[in-house]
Amino acid sequence: MSYIKRDRRAAWYMLAPALLMIGVFIVLPFLMSVILSFTDQRLVPNPNVPTSFIGWRNYVRLAEDGDFLNAFWRTATFTILVVPLQSVMGLGAALLINTKLPMRNLFRGIYFLPTVISMVVVSVIWSSLYQREGFFNYAVTALSFGAVQPIDWLQNPYTAMPALVLLSAWQGFPFQMVVYLAGLQGISQELYEAARIEGANRWQEFWHVTMPGLRNTHILVAITTTIFAFKLFTQVQLLTQGGPSSVTDTLVRVMYMQGFRQGKVGVGAAAAVVFFLLVLGISLVQRLLVKEERAIQ
Amino acid sequence: MADLHLTQVRKCFGNVDIIKGIDLAIRHGEFIVFVGPSGCGKSTLLRMIAGLEEISSGEITIGGRVVNDLPPKERSIAMVFQSYALFPHMTVRDNIAFGLTIAGEPRKEIDAKVADAARILKLDALLDRKPSQLSGGQRQRVAIGRAIVRNPDVFLFDEPLSNLDAALRVNTRAEIAKLHRDLGATMIYVTHDQVEAMTLADRIAVLDGGVVRQFGAPMDLYRYPDNLFVAGFIGSPKMNFIPVKALSVSADTITLNAEGLDALTVAAKGAEILPGTALTLGIRPEHITISHGATPRHQGSVVLLERLGHQIFIEVATLGGHSVTALIDGEEEVELGHTVGLTYDASKCHLFDKNADSLRL
Ligand SMILES: Nc1ncnc2c1ncn2[C@@H]1O[C@H](COP(=O)(O)OP(=O)(O)OP(=O)(O)O)[C@@H](O)[C@H]1O
Ligand SMILES: [Mg+2]
């Protein structure tokens, strides 16, 4: 018995540093935002008006706030567009570099580059691609033989969101690629051989071996990509500041504007808590789906 | 008819030769076993027949058709993998039906064929389960079911029993033998278990280092091994090899001796052997008896003794410094440490020259 106790103690010692970090930098700030979300705390406290608890008022205000609801729907739209695109790009790239092509390691490195570059740098580069004289307008004009006039991609209410989606997917897909690559390598080679023996062509192999073999990977990718997408902020802040006419405003940007620009820390904290619950909900859905799969296997 | 011919078949991975020129002529309906030590190229050869591995040079024909460049599905073969390779998300029914389904056969025919296979393999009650809900033996039967519904000319098995426990292995072995009788198809079966090889095969190909060392009926391999390798590989416990010298030779006999071994005359090709040549004498443990009379003997002391009941397994350290194992009658009176004389049945002795080739007449 005692060695089990000793092992347990050793385990706690080893866990302690990580737990401490998580506690100080994640759990504590989160608990503080929960508390703050029930107060009228301001960024720069007014010495004449002390901070006081105001119950659910911040949450009520958010629910009635058109900007917040707008931001929620914009973020959801972004997510719905970017998740499939980014996942398909990631899967496609993973399938490509999982073949026995020569130089696949080189491609692996090249494909991974966008994710290594800071989103700030990526945004700056893409903003020039999206300019009036930029690459996209050049391409569109050339391909339509001049029929389509140059577009202000980031200033046009119809194209601003798709432009952000494309940029984000490009920057983010290598992560999905790596996850899919791991998933692909977990599929037994013998299953492919069995499928070939049974007469499957490439396409049938993909549908009957690869896709079912990636079921859990799909769930993981969909959930993590969704959570990443919900955190959309940097590109928006740098390229459109939520415009034109708020079509690219996002949840995190509302949090930021409320808390740091308007100094309403309490409202910002409430938005953060709502955001947390959303993400938590998404994670729970994932756990449920994966558990169901385990029960089958 | 699906005769299978391999002509000078070779395989190299990079610049390493793995299969070094194999010729085999397999008749329709034969049960062929490829046997050999680990890494000798059994699986590689099987996969080349299946179409999973390219052929570096040479020719493989199935039913008279060169299949070198045909994909697996056009070779009329089916394969059962060591790890079964069942599709985990499909039911047993869908696994068995897979090949027919993607070939676009009508649903009714598929159902009938699956039902047939399920009946033969006693899988009727399991058709709606997933592979994860089956035992190893049941999974194996599903894999066999998937192979038989397509009614191929040639079945390929790569160590299909190696993941099963001993009892199940014996059962499944018998089932595969029965399946072969019922279907009458050509079967090629890879194993490194010589009991499986001996019991299942019509003919065994013994592979070693990418070449066929001998190809023949199980009892022929046991009785008339062509070389030291086959002699040592087939048979359990292993054949004894004793270095000897030729005393005198004639066209069809060689008389030999060794330290502690009385002169022994064996029928063998003596024509090209000079007296005094070093040879290897091969004798199986079951062909050795304890000598009580004046028959040719090999003397030594018993260093290991295991009573098996009807037989006794002994190891004898001979005067020449060799160790010889023997399976002798269970009633013999021997004890550990005794000095005994061993008698070799001259008609069961094998002689091998310095190239390890048999000097059989
Ligand atoms: N794809 C490959 N690339 C390079 N070498 C290979 C490859 N496949 C097999 N080999 C080599 O070929 C040799 C024969 O392999 P093979 O799998 O045919 O052996 P085996 O007789 O089936 O052995 P076992 O009884 O262990 O299954 C081995 O030395 C192996 O290392
Ligand atoms: Mg093998």
Description:
With 297 residues, chain A is an all-alpha fold. Chain A has a single domain (66-296), classed as Orthogonal Bundle (MetI-like fold). Chain A is built from 13 helices and no strands. Chain A is flat and about 80 Å long. Chain A starts with a helix and ends with a helix. Chain B has 361 residues and is an alpha+beta fold. Chain B has two domains: 4-233, Rossmann fold (3-Layer(aba) Sandwich); 240-359, Nucleic acid-binding proteins (OB fold (Dihydrolipoamide Acetyltransferase, E2P)), CATH 2.40.50.140. Chain B is built from eight helices and 20 strands. Chain B has helices at 42-50, 92-102, 107-120, 136-148, 166-183, 194-200, 218-223, 228-233, and strands spanning 4-13, 16-26, 31-35, 57-62, 65-66, 77-80, 154-158, 186-191, 203-208, 211-216, 240-249, 253-258, 261-267, 278-283, 288-290, 298-307, 311-318, 323-329, 339-344, 350-352. In chain B, the strands form four sheets. Chain B has a six-stranded mixed beta sheet, sandwiched between helices. Chain B has a five-stranded antiparallel beta sheet with strand order 13-12-11-14-20. A five-stranded antiparallel beta sheet of chain B has the order 15-19-16-17-18, with no helix packed on it. Classes of the chains: A mainly alpha (297), B alpha+beta (361). At the A-B interface, helix 8 and helix 9 of A face strand 6 and helix 2 of B. The structure holds adenosine-5'-triphosphate and magnesium ion.
Keywords:
heterodimer, A: 297 residues, mainly alpha, MetI-like fold, B: 361 residues, alpha+beta, Rossmann fold, OB fold (Dihydrolipoamide Acetyltransferase, E2P), 2 domains, six-stranded mixed β-sheet, five-stranded antiparallel β-sheet, elongated, binds adenosine-5'-triphosphate, binds magnesium ion
What order do the helices and strands of chain B follow? EEEHEEEHHHEHEHEEHHEEEEEEEEEE
The CATH topology label of chain A is: MetI-like fold
Helix content of chain A: over 70%
Annotated CATH homologous superfamily of chain A? MetI-like
User: Any idea what the shape of chain A is?
Assistant: flat
Report the biggest beta sheet of chain B as strand number plus sense, adding barrel if it closes.
6 strands, mixed
- Shape summary of chain B: elongated
Would you count the extended β strands of chain B for me?
A: 20
Overall pLDDT level of chain B = 92
Stretches of chain B where pLDDT is under 50 for at least 5 consecutive residues are none
So, CATH architecture of chain A? Orthogonal Bundle
How do the strands of the widest beta sheet of chain B line up side by side?
Answer: 6-7-8-3-9-10
CATH architecture grouping of the largest domain in chain B? 3-Layer(aba) Sandwich
Number of helices of chain A: 13
